[in-house]
Amino acid sequence: MFRSSVGFVLIFLCAMASTDNALALVKDTGLRTGQPGAGGPINGLNTFELALFNEGKARVEALETTCETCVSVLSGGPTGESPLLATRTSATGLNARFNADQCIACHSQPTIGGAGGFLIPNPKEGGNRVAENPLFDLIPHRFGQGNKVPTFIQQYGPIRIARFVKNPDGTPDGRIYPLFTIVGRSDDKTIPQCNAQLLPQPNFESELKKGNIVFRIPLPLFGLGLIEAIPDAEILMRHRASAAYRMQNGISGVPNGSVSYRFGWKAQHKALERFTNASDDFAPQMKKIDPKCVGPNTHVAQELLNAAAFEAPSADFINPLVLLATSFMRYLDAPLPAPMSSLAQRGKTLFGTGPEQPGIGCVACHTAQMNTADKVSTAALQNQTVNLYSDLLLHRMGSSLADNISQGQAKGDMFRTPPLWGLGQRRFFLHDGRTDDLLQAIEAHAAPAGNGYPASEANAVITRFKLLPPADQQAILSFLRAL
Question: How much is the pTM?
Answer without folding.
Answer: 0.89
